[in-house]
Amino acid sequence: MLSKSRWEHSLRTADYAVFMADHYGLPHETVRLAALAHDLAREKPADIIVKWALLDQNTLSEYHLAHPVLLHGFASAWYLREHFALTDDSLLNAVRYHTTGHPDLDASGLIVFAADYMEPGRTHLTDLTRKNLLILSLEELVLAILDAMKLHLVSKGLDLSPDSRELSHRLKKRYNHGL
């Protein structure tokens, strides 16, 4: 189902997610499985991804329809539920929202979101940057990632997803970082 390079990325993401869970004193069973499975549908044809995403969500936002690459998280969550009978909302949401984050993610979901962005195979971060990000609380780390994503997208003339914006807003409000 996954190419060798995609599988290796998933393994690195899972290892980094476990490392982060340990770092933040959180259980790692859910994050490991979610990180291993987060890209299950990533390399499927676009029509299959959209079909599976619709089976997961019933309806898709205009933003997601305009950016179908983001739908592979929904498609992967549907696949896990349908073919492996997984029902753990924390795990399924971590897979579902790993690309953009979501305001309803719990700590496990935030870790998978961050680990996918930070895993050592990602060349946009140096080891020193990774180390410095880990000084932050989990919520501050996610906010830093969202800010970096926003800068990157804006430089390409794109917008941050509504889910990412809402997650950023809620975290800033919850942790008194202003707006």
Treating each run of at least 4 consecutive H or I residues as one helix, how many helices? 10
For the CA atoms, what is the radius of gyration? 15 Å
Principal-axes geometry comes out as globular
What's the total number of strands?
Answer: 0
Short account of what is shown:
It is built from ten helices and no strands.
Describe the structure.
The protein has 179 residues and is an all-alpha fold. The chain contains ten helices and no strands. The radius of gyration is 15 Å and the shape is globular. The relative contact order is 0.12.
List the helices and strands and how they pair.
Layout: H1 4-23, H2 29-37, H3 46-57, H4 62-66, H5 72-84, H6 89-96, H7 107-118, H8 127-133, H9 138-155, H10 162-174
Helix pairs in contact: 1-2, 1-7, 2-6, 2-7, 3-5, 5-6, 6-7, 7-9, 9-10
Any descriptors?
single chain, 179 residues, mainly alpha, 10 helices, 65% helix, globular
